[in-house]
Amino acid sequence: MVRKICISTEEKEKKEEEEEKEEEEVLRRRKDGSKEILTVKKGKFIIKSGLTQKKMDNEEKILKLGLDYTPAFVSRNNTSITMTYIKAKDFKGQHGMYPTIQKMGERFRRDTGYHHGDLNCMNMLRDEAGKLYLIDFEKIYQKEGFLEGEVCCKDNCGKRCYKNF
């Protein structure tokens, strides 16, 4: 006699959540002056900690726009910001990616009015289906008059004038 064991949908979801909570992986660890910035994958989420309030504001500002090529904003507290995890690889070690990265930067500027500020092969991801994503928005900035197509400030000083956040 064969006996089938049925697990309810709720129990199955609960078990999957517990497994995901246990799954924690440090994705990136770097120094920013005297502070350590830590990016950790925890289940279906990325938790980024060690940022200044200004840098967390920048990350949150872009993530909340809901662009289809950025992670989604989940939550924020005093010490960290949480976003959705994107299963994808960066372009580190791949040659000939500059035109792709440049086009993604131009799209980001057009969609948001901000410059990425740290656009490189480590901050651009490609998933298995070939879809591109941008991450790491802590260094965004906006040129004065960028949306009007101006190159410099209102005084026409001829310099590259930036309005930082």
What report would you give on this structure?
This protein has 3 helices and 10 strands. With 165 residues, the chain is of the alpha+beta class. It has one domain (23-164). The strands form 3 sheets. A 5-stranded antiparallel beta sheet has the order 1-2-3-5-4. A 3-stranded antiparallel beta sheet has the order 6-7-8, with no helix packed on it. It is globular. The N and C termini lie far apart (70 Å).
Order of helices and strands: HEEEHEEEHEEEE
Counted up, domains total 1
Total DSSP helices: 3
Strands side by side in the biggest sheet: 1-2-3-5-4
Task: Set out the fold topology.
Blueprint: H1 9-22, E1 24-32, E2 35-42, E3 45-49, H2 53-63, E4 73-76, E5 80-84, E6 88-90, H3 98-112, E7 124-127, E8 132-134, E9 141-143, E10 162-164
Antiparallel strand pairs: 1-2, 2-3, 3-5, 4-5, 6-7, 7-8, 9-10
